[in-house]
Amino acid sequence: MNIPITKTIFGEEEAAAIVKPLETGWVVQGPNVAKFQEMFAAFTGSKHAHATTSCTTALHLGLEAMGIGRGDKVIVPSFTYIASANAVEYTGAEVVFCDIDLRTFNIDETQLERLIVNDPAIKAIMPVNLFGLCANMPYIMELAQKHGLKVIEDSACGFDGWIGEKHSGTFGDVGCFSFHPRKSICTGEGGMLITDDDAIAAVVSQLKDHGASKSDLQRHKEKGGSLLPDFTMRGYNYRMTDMQGALGVCQMDKKESIMQGRRDVAAKYDEALRSVCVNDEDKQKLSDFLMPPFIPEGYKHGYQSYVCLFTGGEDVSELLDPHTTASLADLKSLVDKINLKRNLFMEKLEERNIATRQGTHAVHTLGYYKDKNGFADEDFLRSYAADRLSIALPLYAGMSDNEFEYVVSNIKEALK
Ligand SMILES: Cc1ncc(COP(=O)(O)O)c(C=O)c1O
What we know:
The chain has 416 residues and is an alpha/beta fold. The chain has two domains: 12-253, Aspartate Aminotransferase, domain 2; 255-415, Aspartate Aminotransferase, domain 1 (Alpha-Beta Complex). The chain has helices spanning 12-24, 31-44, 55-65, 82-90, 112-118, 137-147, 198-207, 216-221, 242-253, 255-275, 317-320, 328-351, 367-373, 381-389, 401-415; strands spanning 48-52, 73-77, 79-80, 94-98, 122-125, 150-154, 162-163, 166-167, 174-178, 191-195, 290-291, 299-300, 306-310, 361-362, 390-393. A seven-stranded mixed β-sheet has the order 1-10-9-6-5-2-4, sandwiched between helices. A hairpin with a 2-residue loop joins strand 7 (162-163) and strand 8 (166-167). Helix 1 runs antiparallel to helix 9 (242-253), helix 2 packs parallel to helix 9 (242-253) and helix 12 packs parallel to helix 14 (381-389). The two termini are 21 Å apart. It binds pyridoxal-5'-phosphate. Pyridoxal-5'-phosphate binds at residues 54-56, 80-81, 83-84, 128, 154, 156-157, 178, 180, 182, 191. Pyridoxal-5'-phosphate is lined by residues 54-56, 80-81, 83-84, 128, 154, 156-157, 178, 180, 182, 191.
């Protein structure tokens, strides 16, 4: 058996839809992109949705449309995909990293106010709704309002993640999504920016289209289409193609079955981790080695990934406790010790053709940001721990019972 980390859910509908733009000749952002945007705005409950080439470019546009630039600073969690931080740098602004809460893998909101009051150059916060779970957005919005800061949610992984009735990405001034194949719905590459702010939406629509004051679709619909529009901003080409738009429409049409499929597998993992014993003779459960995702009350997880904290059976309470009196050096050596076990565990699963991945990166440990800032691993210790101890298990809609049992029985074997 061969179990990938995830699978895209493409069928006959996508195959048929992607050909249509080739037949009509309308292959850059056109009617399919417009429909995808409409569907996305309706689903998330946002006023505007603008499709882009990726989440990274959506983040860049959002920051620029909010007026972030040279001389400004933006707070970004230190455990995220590198693109969150890179998008800030594209604008000329500087990244200020903030550590995470190891239970949720999201930004530790209790550290934000200290950062904000100490640095007047901080103009925005970029919480990341990692793996499909929202950060503590109500609190972050309260804090942002108190200090007059902008908020851009990196919801690359946030599709169908909610707090109560509010969708991920709708709390901040702007929310940005990814449709890369590792995400729940996929358009190849692709992104979406949502906002309720008319002024931000107008700037984004122009900036993503070279700064043109009128899109090609608008111009073709009107009389006098032979005259090109004015370009009143220095824009970018971040337009989604209409083939991707067509894929997006199909994926939105089947989002309920995709998401139900993903949630069913996640629920089965929850149950298996809590009930399956590692050895038949003792009482240790899989969850004593792999902590299942933690979901705060009132939150609905989108399960872009099912990411556990690998403890290897060790006591990690000091790591989880932000008020621990343990030294950073002791905590780091605990992380390094368990990291060896995690990597061995991942290798064993790989030998059995089961793909796993570390959740994402501690960005402060990656060459570019580490060298630039002279960071030490333990400067953001929880992010370092998340990088070294997280593990994403295979998750895709339609995983069969046989496949699931193969994964769980091999997890059990590999932990013995
Ligand atoms: C948290 C986060 N932000 C941003 C991105 C970038 O998304 P894209 O590949 O669509 O640019 C990703 C992609 O993996 C991500 O996980």
